[in-house]
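My current task is to audit a protein record that another person submitted. I need someone to confirm that the C-alpha cell line plausibly describes how this chain folds. Take the sequence as given and treat only the C-alpha cells as open to question. This is what I was given:
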Amino acid sequence: MESNAESPLLTSTTKNAHFVGDVEDIPPINGINDFFVQFGVESKKLWYLAGPAIFTTVFQYSLGAITQTFAGHVGTLDLAAVSVENSVIAGFSFGVMVGMGSALETLCGQAFGAGQVDMLGVYMQRSWVILFVTALILLPLYIFATPLLLLIGQTHDISHAAGQMAIWMIPQLFAYAFNFPIAKFLQAQRWGLWGGAIVLNLSWWFMVIAQMIYILSGTCGRAWSGFSLGAFSNLWSFVKLSLASAIMLCLETWYFMALVLFAGYLKNAEIAVDALSICTNIVGWAVMIAIGFNAAISVRVSNELGAAHPRTAKFSVVVVIFFSFIIGVLLAIILAIFRHQYPALFADNLQVQQAVYALTPLLGACLIINNIQPALSGVAIGAGWQAVIAYINIACYYIFGVPLGLTLGFVADWGVKGIWVGMLTGTVVQTLILIWICFRTNWEKEASMAEKRIQNWSGQKALEGEQ
C-alpha cells in the first residue's frame, strides 16, 4: 500500500495546493507562540467547513427528531413505534447508506486536495449508481418490517405499529441514495404517524432537488462537467471502498440502534423503549454537531494529505479533538442545569419522564464521549482507514461493549441503565484507541499513500476510461 517513490502527480499537484488554502505544509511548531498562531489559523479553516455542515446536519436530523417528539405527546405506543422504526429500520438503512456514501469523502477530498477537480462529478455519479442499487436491496427490510421485528422478539403492538410506519417511509430510503453522495460531493469542495411520514419524505426529497439544482446550475465549475459514462467504469473498486466505509459507520450506527432494541426485551417494554429513545434523541442532536466536525475534519485531512501536507493534516486532528471535547462538556452542563425540565418536552407520561430523569447522568457522559468519537471517525474517513477502524469497532462494540451491557442489564438486573453503562464503556475504549492511533500515525506515509490512491483513481487510468 505504501509508495515511497516521488511521482510526477505529487510534484505537479503541489502547485494546485491553493485548493486547500495553503501553498505549502505548515512549518514545524517550536514553542507555545507557534502553537497558538497555527491553532488560530486551523480553527478558522475547521469552522469554515464545520459551521455549514453542523447547520445542515442539525436541520436534517430535526426532521425525524421533531416527528418523534410529537409522537411522544400522542401516546407511549406511538412514541415506541416511531422510535423503533427510526432506530431499527431507518437506522439500519441510514447506517448502510451513509457508510456507502462516505467512500466519496476519501476519494473526493483527496482528489480535490491534489487538484484533480474534474473527477469529482464522475465519482458522485458512481456513488449514485451504487447507492440506488443498495436501496433496492434494503427495500424488503421496510416491506417486511413487522414480521422481522416480531422475529427478533419485539412486542406485538410495537412491531405492527413500527411496521406500518416503515411502509410509509420507503420514499425516504431512496432520498438517502441521492442525498448522501450529493452532500459528500459539495462538502469536498467546501460548499398521527402517516402525517409524520409524509412530512419527512417531502423534506428529504426537497433537499435532494434543491442540491441537484445547485449542482446543475454550473456553480460547481470544473467539479461538475455533466453526466458521464465514466460513472459506470471501475465500479467494483469503488464498491469495495464503499463497503469498507459502510461497515465502519454501520457498526457505529447500529450500536445505538441495539440500545433501543435491547430495551424492548425488558419488563414494561414501552416505558423502557420510550425513555431510552428520548435519551438517544437528545444524543442525536449532539451527534449532529459532532457529525459536522466529522465532515469538516474528513475534508481537512483528505485535502491536506492529497496536497502532500502531512503536518497540517496532523495538526488539524489536534484542533478538532479540542473543539469536540469543549462542545460536549458545554452540552452536558446545559443538560444538568435543566435536568428537571427537559423530560416533559418529549413525553406527557410521568413514568417515562421519571425514567428519563434517572438516566440523565449517563446521558451527560454520553454527550461528551459521542462528541469526540464521530470527529475521530472523520479523521479515519479522510485518511482512508475505514477497513482498519471496522475491525476496531467490532472488537470494542460487539465483542466487549454489547456483552458487558447485556450482562449488566439482564444478569445484574440493572435494566436500561446497565445496558447503557456497558455499551458506553465500549464507546470509551474505542475512542481512546482512535486517539492513540491518530497520534501514533506516520502522517508522511499517509500522504504518500494518498498520492498512490489519487493515481489509481483519478490519474491516467481514470482519464483513459473517459476517453
User: Anything to note?
Assistant: The chain is about 80% helix and 0% strand. Residues 1-21, 192-197, 459-467 have pLDDT under 50 and may be disordered.
